[in-house]
Design a protein that fits this description.
The protein is of the alpha+beta class. The chain contains twelve helices and twelve strands. β4 and β5 form a beta hairpin.
Length: 325
Amino acid sequence: MRPFSYERASTARAAVDAAGADSMYLGGGTNLVDLMRLGVVSPGALVDVTRIAADAIEETPGGGLRVGAAVRNGDLAAHPLVRRRYPMLAQAVLSGASGQIRNMATVGGNLLQRTRCSYFQDVTKPCNKRSPGSGCPARAGDHRNLAILGHSESCVATHPSDMAVALAALGAVVHVEGREGPKSVPMPGLHRLPGDEPERDTVLEPGDLITAVELPALPFAARSRYRKVRDRASFSFAVVSVAAALEVSGGVVRDCRVALGGVAHVPWRAEAAEAALRGAPATEAEFARAADAELTRARPLPLNGFKVPLARNVLIRVLADLVEM
């Protein structure tokens, strides 16, 4: 491991001011420390942001919630207002890691997780995300659990966060302290598709620090669910996941929010499915039509084509379950 300097910041502004071109922020460290040990990242300096006062969950005047970036994942999932108003978010966090990791990992760090693509994590292999221009061997190699939507010739990696899928479905807003001052980034919109710059996971600029995530007031999100399909029942990353909220009145879908995980370089907001659902009867036939509208854009590789019918079936089942709640 490359030697690095260490500095502890007491405020978000102090952290941004301390961050240089070769710096990274240290929160829970559950992803960063692993990547440093593997040699995937080698920062020259770490800026510790664990002492910044950003670990509260507070109600906003409009009826939403503001979640500090330093809130531990376990605390987020256990918070009574999160469980009552946004159950999909609590379920997503609880499905995302072991209890020990949830008690260390932070909300801000969870959003910024790097992909678990095996080529990215193996420094003996080429990887455009880790070393731009070196190639994407996953396209012809091990891509069983990689992207079927929004990928490019440069990268077929998937985003690993479960929490981010729920936040994308909810339309959360990410608050950031940048070099030029505070700013806000909507979700979806924080994460970016790989294009020809797969090394850029998000739209954040160097030195940007996530300070909070704001959840909108969304009354029908109380009727929501997160379902994750994985290779084993214990701690594992999603093969496919669905976050959905549904408002039904008189047997008709009045509004909805849907996002998919495990299928793209970003938490995938299923906007085509949402458009097909709004105003349609709340039936499995219409849910299937909406799923097909979304997945018609899928471009699976030879080994992950099974994800298309899997995502379709999971989405239909989640929506049907929500109608029965």
